[in-house]
UniProtKB/TrEMBL annotation:
<dbReference type="Pfam" id="PF02518">
    <property type="entry name" value="HATPase_c"/>
</dbReference>
<keyword id="KW-0418">Kinase</keyword>
<feature type="transmembrane region" description="Helical">
    <location>
        <begin position="182"/>
        <end position="205"/>
    </location>
</feature>
<feature type="domain" description="Histidine kinase">
    <location>
        <begin position="272"/>
        <end position="484"/>
    </location>
</feature>
<dbReference type="GO" id="GO:0005524">
    <property type="term" value="F:ATP binding"/>
</dbReference>
<dbReference type="InterPro" id="IPR003594">
    <property type="entry name" value="HATPase_dom"/>
</dbReference>
<feature type="region of interest" description="Disordered">
    <location>
        <begin position="1"/>
        <end position="22"/>
    </location>
</feature>
<feature type="transmembrane region" description="Helical">
    <location>
        <begin position="32"/>
        <end position="53"/>
    </location>
</feature>
<dbReference type="InterPro" id="IPR036890">
    <property type="entry name" value="HATPase_C_sf"/>
</dbReference>
<keyword id="KW-0472">Membrane</keyword>
<protein>
    <recommendedName>
        <fullName>histidine kinase</fullName>
        <ecNumber>2.7.13.3</ecNumber>
    </recommendedName>
</protein>
<keyword id="KW-0067">ATP-binding</keyword>
<keyword id="KW-0812">Transmembrane</keyword>
<feature type="compositionally biased region" description="Polar residues">
    <location>
        <begin position="1"/>
        <end position="11"/>
    </location>
</feature>
<keyword id="KW-0808">Transferase</keyword>
<dbReference type="GO" id="GO:0004673">
    <property type="term" value="F:protein histidine kinase activity"/>
</dbReference>
<dbReference type="InterPro" id="IPR050980">
    <property type="entry name" value="2C_sensor_his_kinase"/>
</dbReference>
Length: 497
């Protein structure tokens, strides 16, 4: 075997360099935890803002309620006369400097002690809004010193309002204590909530994603191992769908890789066989050349056909070797008559002398096609042989019911050739992979290559081949369009040159 005849089925792969290990980064669990904690803290902050404002309002309302109680006591004294010591004691118990009430047009100071020089803030609880309560609460916490606050609120009985003067420092201190306690409680709740959310999301999402990731990494290391196929869970959500789809995809990929491996081994074996077969056929061709000198008329009649068959067989072997090197030549197209090719196909298929199958040729007179004659011969021969093999499964049928029909017509610039038979037809399970190699053969020992070869040759001509639905048996339609006029004229000029 010469060096030029050697066929490499698989290209030489360069040595794979070890992939660099990715740097260890924060995983999905850590990112989830870091995302959960600040979100919970933001939720706690949103709770704190109205809570501190509500705390301040409640403290001021408590001062007004205490002032109302003190006003009832002070107003119940005879002639409104209350000793200064008792008034100071009452004001000290409610934490106020003064208590006043307005009834009608009269404003009455019920008690006072250690009045401040000025009033720093006025707070009217009757017109307090949520936004002003929030703003005032933060202003109170940000201030320093001990400012005086005049608090006005509704009064019991027939009075219009009651007012009291209190210090801001005790209120600010109580707000700080409330904030500290709320912060501690919020931190505890945030940690508990973050932990619960983390655990829930970890088991619902993170762990299944780790399982998917580990399976993908393991499958990438050995994609031909069926043991690396993921076993989907019974989850009904999106992750369950991903697991099932991934399992199906991996199973299809493993099957495809196994088939590719078998095809590669088969291709190598076929290449070796074709190389030796080509040499044997070449020797047979040399012997058949000597038949041309035999004067027997029958020998002179069959010798040219034998020569053409041997030449075509040698060409087939050579094309197989070229295909192994991915050097398939483009079709040598020219305008040829279809009918002589069909008659040669009939003779090559052994149907010219076969009386068990009726041969019907219905080709338009003078119909021509723009195609490679050898390629067209191979396409029709594969289809006719498939039809004959389909009819072989019906031995008890007469010749009238076992027919192979070849029709040809022209539709504009497209030549249409149909090959049909009256056999059982194509099985439904084989139609999905009709023109794929090693997929569609429905008979023992068949490889399913005939239709795959025919489809490849037709597509090389820019044509189409498909199974016609709704016919008796199986009908395959071939449509090959003519090349543009400009291309034909260039080819003709080159041929004449």
């Amino acid at each position: 075997m010469s060096e030029t005849d050697t066929v490499s089925v698989t290209e030489e792969q360069p040595a794979l360099e070890p992939r660099p290990q990715p740097q260890r980064r924060l995983g999905l669990s850590g990112k989830l935890l870091l995302l959960t904690i600040p979100l919970v803290m933001i939720a706690g902050l949103l709770i704190y803002v109205p809570a501190i404002a509500n705390f301040r309002m409640n403290r001021l309302n408590d001062r007004l309620a205490a002032a109302n109680t003190a006003a009832l006591v002070l107003d119940a004294a005879p002639s409104g006369m209350v000793p200064d010591s008792l008034a100071r004691q009452i004001l000290s118990s409610i934490g106020a400097h003064a208590v006043a009430i307005k009834m009608g047009q009269q404003r009455r100071l019920l008690a006072s002690a250690d009045l401040p020089a000025s009033i720093d803030h006025d707070v009217d609880m009757r017109t307090m809004t949520a936004w002003s309560a929030i703003v005032d609460s933060f202003e109170t916490m940000l201030e320093t010193g001990n400012q005086a606050i005049r608090v006005v609120g509704p009064a019991p009985g027939g009075a219009q309002f009651i007012e009291t003067i209190v210090d801001e420092a005790p209120l600010r201190a109580s707000m700080y204590r409330f904030s500290r306690n709320l912060l501690l409680v919020s931190l505890g709740i945030a940690m508990l909530t973050a932990g619960l959310v983390y655990i829930a999301l970890h088991f619902l999402f993170v762990r299944p994603m780790r399982h998917l990731t580990a399976n993908l990494v393991g499958f990438h290391e050995n994609p031909e191992s069926s043991a690396r196929i993921i076993v989907p869970s019974q989850r009904g959500d999106e992750i369950g769908v991903v697991e099932r789809e991934l399992s199906d995809m991996q199973r299809d990929l493993v099957s495809m890789l196994h088939q590719k491996s078998r095809l590669a081994a088969l291709g190598l074996a076929v290449s070796k066989i074709n190389h030796d077969l080509r040499n044997l056929l070449a020797s047979s061709q040399l012997l058949s050349d000597q038949l041309a000198s035999v004067p027997d008329p029958r020998v002179q009649r069959f010798a040219p056909k034998l020569m053409r068959s041997l030449e075509r067989a040698i060409a087939f072997c050579q094309s197989t070797l070229s295909y192994g090197r991915v050097q398939e030549a483009a079709p040598d197209r020219r305008m040829i008559l279809i009918e002589p090719v069909v008659m040669e196909v009939r003779e090559s298929a052994g149907l010219a002398s076969d009386t068990s199958i009726t041969w019907i040729s219905a080709i338009e007179r003078g119909l021509s096609i723009d195609a490679d004659p050898d390629h067209l011969f191979r396409v029709l021969l594969n289809l006719v042989r498939n039809a004959a093999q389909a009819l072989e499964g019906r031995p008890n049928s007469d010749a009238a019911s076992q027919q192979i029909r070849v029709t040809g017509r022209r539709e504009g610039t497209v030549a249409i050739v149909e090959v049909s038979d009256t056999g059982p037809g194509v099985p439904a399970k084989a139609r999905d992979h009709l023109f794929e190699a090693f997929q569609t053969s429905g008979r023992p020992g068949g490889s399913g290559l005939g239709l795959a070869i025919a489809a490849e040759l037709v597509r090389a001509h820019g044509g189409d081949i498909h199974l016609v639905e709704g016919t008796i048996g199986a009908t395959f339609r071939i449509a090959i369009p003519d090349r543009p006029v400009e291309l034909l004229s260039v080819r003709n000029e080159r041929a004449r040159a």
